[in-house]
Each structure stands twice: as structure tokens, then as C-alpha cells.
User: Fold this.
Amino acid sequence: MKKSLGWFLMVVFLIVTISVFGEKVKITWWYESVTPTSLKAIEDNLIKPYEDTHPNVKIDILVKNQLQEVLRTAIIAGEGPDIIMTMGPAEANRFAAAGYLLPLDEYLTKYCLTDEIPDIFLDIGKVGDNIYSIPKSIESMGVIYNKSLFEENGWKKPTNSKEWIELLNNIKEKGLIPIAAGNANWKPTNEHYVTVYLNHYAGPENVYKALKGELSWSDPIFVDAIKMLKSDFKNFWPDYSIYSVLTQEDFVPLVSMRQSAMFIVGTWGFQWLTDPNYWPSNDEAGWFPFPNLREKVEYPIVDIGIGSTLSVNKNSPNAEEAAEFLMWILTYKEGIGRLLRDFPGEWIMPVEIPEEVVPSDVDPIFYEHVQIQYNLLEKDKYGYTTWTFLGPDTWQWCYEGIEKVWLGKITPEEYMKKWDEIFQEELKKGLVPPVPERRENSQ
Amino acid sequence: MKYKNKSKNIFSVGIFVFPALFINIFVILIPAIITFILAFFEWDGLNVPQFVGIKNFVTIFSETTFFNALLNNCIWLFIFLTLPVIMGLISAEFLRQTKWNFLLPVFFFPTILPIVVVGLIWKFIYHPIRGLGKYLNVVILGDPSIALYGIAFANIWAWWGFLCVVFHSAIQGISKELYEAATLDGANKWQEFRYITIPQIVPTLVFMEIMTIIWSFLVFDWVWVMTQGGPAGSTELLATLLYKKSFYSYKVGEASAIGVIISIFGFLGISLYYYLDKKGVEV
Assistant:
């Protein structure tokens, strides 16, 4: 009896020991809503290579619909994933300011990433003296168009306001919808148009000043930008009643099938071009930077945004391992290079990708866009996207209020006046994300 | 002996009541109390809440979006106090008169479908390119003047069957002699409905109307699935506004204040119930 008991206890002890010491470190990562194909691209290009080279680590990536809502609820309960993926610096910085994120400075320094990542992308993830988030998707606004349609009709890519309006009128005369658009499954789509019109009419320097609180958002230069957007929306976008029920699954094929000529979109739009559900025809697609809408604004510029950020949950039991994984992603250029092909538009990280690791079958238009974006960024020829550089209330007014302008319920003056009121309030409370300094003499 | 029996009774009753009581306290009562308290605090959901008194209520009452949402809830209430109730009554009476009870599960079927599924299906039906909406001259969910009615229509489609079943059940409790007597007196079908059916099921009718008042201010899922409060806020309801304030604007205090206001309407509905009961109205 005693002997049996002894054997039993030894077996239990062994089982417990093996399970404790043999267990892998599990890093959880909640990812936003994504297609199975794109999820597989992340697993194949990042997760599996990491697990292969780090056999004691298991990365558990879970897709969460309504990520923004579930993430906050989990984090404040002291739970949540190890890798925190947010919608942008505004959200990440809030978590950081409340003490939920791990500072990444020592890890970035350890891997010499502070030298490689441009200051603009380090600064924007800073709260106080520490960096808490790194951009996962650097994006910019532009225009994707039906290149075959343009060539057949002799239409040129516009570079200024006059060419832009002329092009839109020419397209309209052909019986096409000049600009395909819809906000049915993402109401904040409205802000994409506000972003380009503000930056390309008022100019990035004025937007910068306004973001720093040095220029009022109700300044006539911004009001005039919104007036132009109001007029163009009425004349060249689908009717508002149609616009508010269309999704990208509806309007992107319109361009491919020549019922419309182009759509204004950020870098994420490139993933649709490789999907036959979105681009069913054999027509060629193209991209051009949004034209500048006022003479004094130089061409070209791109409106830079950060679509999502990656951080580490401070309360995670595996915080260090999670931070190491994040740094590994930034240094694993082959993986990021392959994601340019397999998940275009969503994994443009702030590190230089050598040409030799970029697969030869990356969509050339997308790759050209990434190069242009990077070059313009280097030359300080960039504007500011509203979802990256505004506080949450101003951001909400930006995309909700513009609908009232389009429907004639309020004037552009009233829209920008309220924008300024909300913004100044948020600036006082420290809710506006940090705006990296512009170099002097930049546009 | 008497004391022992009483303890035993309390214990036996407690065993049956405790699980439901436990759930009610921890899932309903405590969150409700916390929500009420948070309505007087400014909280972004992350940092420590700061007491601000009635500031959240003052802020909400100064916003046109709040009154717009409240108006939409009132419109919703009016629609659901009338249309589906009338449809439920007429169909229940129809089943009584024809005795085609096999139709009951058919009428009830939409009620058991998940709201998200039904909402999405109707969204596709209304779609101006991919749905039947292309045959209409109007884009229902895209037109601010009618979008709310479009959503209500979809909800009525899924709801009236439930009311039919409830009224049908109530009608089963009416003595058949009343109808026989009416027939002998020469009453027609409409008179039977008007003078027998409706008066006899007034308690059920009143109860469902009161519940409708409460439910009308809780509506969220239909609007969220179909329009998320758009276009241009024309379908915004108090519940969707609460959700946006909490999760998009990081204003949990103001969202809680809206929650308190919603519960006031629920309280008014229940008060009406007790008032009518006290007045001797059968409820």
C-alpha cells in the first residue's frame, strides 16, 4: 500500500514538473476583423517563422470583431492580450497614459531600432518620455483609378484643382459616377475626404499649425476647404442616400466594371485590387497622389496616417517575451517583405525593407505607392490624417458633422467652428496625440 | 416544532429562489447601481473616475443629438404601440375564427430568428444594387427621412408573430359561451371581435403595451446592425448614443447618464402598470 502510494505521488510529481517546465510561453494577440486569407498571411510570414526559431514560444492570434470595444474592457479589468493592437496612436496613447502599456524604449534601443525608425513614428507613440507603441500600418491617402478606362478616354492624372474638376466633369459627362464611395460598413469613411480636402487645400503647414493650437480650425482657409468638399461631394460622389448604404464590396467593383472611374482611399485599399471579388475585370488599376487644390500648396504630398499600432500589455505575465516578439517583427525584413505581397496595404512598418527581400510578384502599383509614400515622407512633403492626429471627440465630430454639411443641415462655417471648440477643449486636456515637429521650410 | 418547520420552509424556499436571486443581484442590481453612480462621474474608462455631480446630465441635455435620439425613440414607441399590436390582434382573432392553428408556428417563426441575422437580411433586401431595393425609387436605409421607418418595418416583421401568439393564448381563455350567445343574438364577426374578444383580453393587451413602452427605449441591436445610427444621425436612438459615448468618445459618465435616463422611462412604464392595477384596471 505504502509502495503504491509512493509510486502514485512520484507520477503526479513528474506530471506537474513536466507541465510546468515543459510548457511553452504563450503570447496572445487579439487581431482586428480580417479575412481568413489575410490571417493566414500573418501566420505564414510572421508567426510560424518566429515559432520555428523560438520553440519555447507559442503565438496565439485571435480575431476579435469589435476589437476596440473588447480590448478596452479587457485591459481595464487587468486582462487582455499580451500584444495590444489599437486603431492608432490616439487610442494607444490613452492606454499608455493610464498605465496599461509597457515602455518599449529599452527594447528599441537594444535592437538599434531607434536609429532606423524615423523620429516621426517614434515620437507619435510617446507619452511623457517613453515610447509605448509602434506603427503597424503606415498609410497615406491617394486615388485608385481604372487605368485602362483613363487611357482609352485620354484622361490624365490631375495635379491641381483645375485639372481635378475638369477630370471629374469629363467623367460625369460620360455618364459614369466620377468618384465611387460608400460608408455603410465604416461610418468614419467620411473623414477620408475631409482629410484630403483639408490638407490639399489648406496645406499641411496650416494643418500642422492648427494641430499645435497655433491656428484656429475655424480659419477661413479650412472653411473654404470644406466648402469645396461640400460642392464636390454633391456634384461628383454618388447621391448621399446611395453613398450611405454602399460598402467597399459595392463601390470598388463599380470602378473595375467602369461604372465609376476612381475612389479616394488610403493604402489599405490596395488589398482589394488583388481580390477578384473586388476587382473582377481585367482592367488595369493605377494610383496617384491626391491633387493639390490651391495654388500655394505644392504637389505632390501624401497625408500620412497610422492605421494601427502594436504595444505590449504591462499586466501580461509574458510582457518581456511579447516585447521581444514585437522587436523581432520589426527586424524580420523578409516577413514584412512577403506581407507586402500577401497582405498589401496593411503591414507597412516604419523600417526600411531591402529590395532583395521584396518578392518579385508584389503588386507593382502598390509597391510604387509605398516607395512614393516613403520618399515624400523623407522630404517632409506630407499632410496629417484626421484619425491619427485628432483627439477622440474631434475625430467623431469630423466624420459625423460632415454629413450634416453634406445634407445642408449646418454650414461649413458652423462645422469648423464646432470642430475648433471641441479640439481646443481636448488640447487643454492633453487628449490630442503628439504632433512631431516639422522641419523648417517644409511644405 | 413550529420553529423547526418554519426554518425548514425558509430553507426549501431559499434553495429554489437563491440561484435566480444570485443572478439578479450580480448581473442586474450591482451593475445598475454602478451605472447610476458613474452617471455622476467623469470617466474615460481607463483612469480613475472624477466626481462631477450633475455635469453629465447638463451636458447631455445641451446636445441636440440627445434630443434627436429621444425623438426617434418616441417615434419608435408610437409605431410599436400601434402597428404590430393591431396586426397581432387581428391575426389572433383570425386564427380563433378560422381555427387554422397550424399557422401559429408560421407567424411565430420570425420571432425566434436572431436579430442580427434578420437585420442583415433586411439590410440586403433594402440594398439599392444587390437587393430588391433596386426596384424601388428610394433608397430606404440611405434616406434620412425614412430610414428609421425602414428599420421599424423589419422589426415589425419579426415581432408581430410574437404578439399574435400572446393574444391567441389570451383568447383561448375566453369562455366560448360568450361567442355562442353573441351569435344567437345576431352579432357578426366584427362585433364579436369588438365587444367580446378585445374587452376580454384587456389585461393581456395592457400588459403588452406597457412592456412595449419599456422595450422601445431599450432598442439597440436593430439599428446597430442596419445603420449604426445613420444616415446623418437620423436613426440614432438613446441606446446607440450611449454605446458611442462609451466606446468611441471615451465618456463613460455621460453614457451612464443616458442609461439612467433610459431606465427612467422603464420606471415610468412600471409605474403605469401599478397605477392601473391600483385603479382596479385588470392588468
User: Anything to note?
Assistant: Chain A touches chain B through 30 residues (CB under 8 Å). Chain A has a mean pLDDT of 92. Residues 212 and 435 of chain A are 7 Å apart (CA to CA).
